[in-house]
Design goal:
Length: about 270
């Protein structure tokens, strides 16, 4: 086997050389695009040709299978008078796609991803079938960060405070705090719902008591509090009277202790 190895290498080099020499149509894209939480990013697939070319099929796909958008039956030729531009329909929501003829013999198929999430990270492939051959190019989309959410909402009715976090990924849960007290154990309805694209809507309700509360979105897999909302004091007639009674009941013993301590301190300092 060994003596043949250099021969094989030469063959590979020769084949590559002839291929590049006859490469009349090219596709290229930016190799390492990146995007962060809830932002958008556009991947361009730029096709350029040195001669007239008929494009039978040109498309963006994810992981070599799911087609995101496609165009076909376009002829690029030197007599083109009007450069076409067109918005295309996409197979998945959050994606917008269009193509623009950038010159007589070149065009750009652009795929825009909106509201990016960590799971959008990965390889996107643009593939061309034409009368001058089959070509493809890939873009490895990076996601900056490990977790993401879209929106945080808090609301109250007569009996409960509710916090809602939408577009959450990866899996999250709501923790409740009043000052440094962790009240997560008292939360009553915790729900999780998978949204159409795979992110989650996470909600939690806490029985309404006096005071200001803080609901925070905890991501167990990365161990961070990603967001928090303060649910305000709501002053209805009922809650105001509860606040008054509650104040006396809770602060009563504390004040008594304080006076006992103060008296003792006074007596000891006299002695
Ligand atoms: C592709 O073409 C677009 C114009 O449609 C341009 O903005 C972009 O920079 C080009 N990308 C590459 C990698 O050449
Ligand atoms: C391209 O044209 C052929 C024949 O005219 C037709 O069968 C085919 O559906 C067209 N493809 C697209 C993507 O429009
Ligand atoms: C390219 O196509 C145009 C329009 O069909 C034609 O006039 C021209 O001769 C073609 N050029 C070549 C090199 O085939
Ligand atoms: C494509 O969509 C954009 C934004 O919705 C719009 O402004 C533009 O006119 C559309 N272009 C075509 C060719 O339909
Ligand atoms: C395509 O062309 C239109 C009109 O010239 C322009 O508004 C749009 O930004 C272009 N899109 C891309 C992706 O280059
Ligand atoms: C969050 O609140 C805003 C404004 O109050 C509202 O428009 C939106 O629909 C709410 N979102 C959810 C998920 O409840
Ligand atoms: C208040 O909200 C909680 C939690 O969403 C719900 O269980 C309860 O039925 C609501 N109460 C009223 C009076 O709407
Ligand atoms: C709050 O309580 C929850 C559930 O009891 C627990 O998982 C979480 O780690 C606590 N957080 C803090 C900051 O103490
Ligand atoms: C809410 O709770 C989180 C988690 O303990 C904390 O990081 C954040 O500072 C609190 N926010 C307010 C306004 O109290």
């Amino acid at each position: 086997m060994r003596p043949f190895l250099p021969g094989i290498i030469w063959m590979v080099v020769a084949v590559r050389l002839t291929l590049t020499k006859t490469e009349l149509v090219k596709v290229h894209t930016k190799d390492n695009p990146s995007v962060s939480c809830q932002k958008s990013v556009t991947l361009h697939c730029n096709v350029s040709s040195e001669e007239n070319v008929t494009i039978d099929d040109l498309f963006w796909s994810r992981n070599h299978n799911k087609r995101l958008c496609a165009v076909g039956n376009i002829t690029l030729h030197t007599e083109n008078t009007k450069l076409q531009t067109k918005n295309l329909t996409t197979q998945q929501h959050r994606f917008v796609c269009n193509y623009n003829q950038t010159s007589q013999l070149s065009l750009s198929l652009s795929l825009t991803l909106q509201n990016a999430q960590p799971f959008d990270k990965g390889t996107y492939t643009c593939k061309l079938f034409s009368n001058r051959g089959i070509k493809e190019t890939t873009a490895d989309l990076e996601f900056q960060g490990s977790e993401c959410y879209k929106d945080a909402n808090e609301s109250s009715n007569d009996t409960h405070r509710t916090c809602t976090f939408t577009g959450v990924y990866p899996d999250g849960e709501v923790h409740w705090f009043q000052g440094s007290n962790n009240l997560t154990g008292s939360a009553q309805t915790n729900t999780k719902q998978v949204e159409t694209d795979g992110a989650l809507t996470v909600t939690s309700s806490l029985k309404r008591e006096k005071g200001t509360y803080n609901c925070s979105l905890w991501i167990p897999s990365t161990g961070v509090y990603l967001a928090s909302r303060v649910t305000p004091v709501l002053l209805t007639f009922e809650s105001r009277s509860q606040l008054g009674n509650g104040g006396v009941v809770t602060f009563g013993p504390v004040w008594k202790l304080f006076w006992v301590f103060f008296l003792c301190h006074f007596i000891f300092s006299l002695v």
